[in-house]
Amino acid sequence: MTDSALWAGEHLGRSFTGTHLEDGCPCPKAPCGLIHRDTIRDDCPEHAWQHAKSMRQSHPASRCPAA
Ligand SMILES: [Zn+2]
Ligand SMILES: [Zn+2]
């Protein structure tokens, strides 16, 4: 198993609770309101990897509370 397969379907959020930062960003959203790790947009000011900001919430898509 590759790392990309292992992490596919992860939902990430920048806030400790809630989805306030995700609500205003251009990334596609998961049902829970967080963003999909594999569809983060390069032009997103919050989630683009080049900004290297910390992600304070995460869970696998298979354990999404909104699924
Ligand atoms: Zn984003
Ligand atoms: Zn989720």
Give keywords:
67 residues; alpha+beta; 3-stranded antiparallel sheet; 2 helices; globular; disordered N terminus; binds zinc ion
Strand order of the largest sheet: 2-1-3
Element pattern in H and E: HEHEE
**Hey, roughly how much beta strand do the residues contain?**
5-15%
- Helix and strand content put the structural class at alpha+beta
Bound molecules: zinc ion
- Global Rg: 11 Å
User: What count of structural domains?
Assistant: 1
Residue-averaged pLDDT, rounded? 89
Count of β-strands: 3
Commentary on this structure:
- A 3-stranded antiparallel β-sheet has the order 2-1-3, with no helix packed on it.
- It has one domain (3-63).
- It starts with a helix and ends in a 7-residue tail after the last strand.
- Residues 1-7 have low confidence and may be disordered.
- It has 67 residues and is α+β, with helices and mostly antiparallel strands.
- It has helices at residues 3-7, 20-23; strands at 10-13, 35-36, 57-60.
- Helix content is 13%, strand content 15%.
- The protein contains 2 helices and 3 strands.
- It binds zinc ion (ZN) (2 copies).
- One zinc ion binds next to loops.
- Residues 11, 30, 32, 34, 59, 64, 66 line the site of one zinc ion.
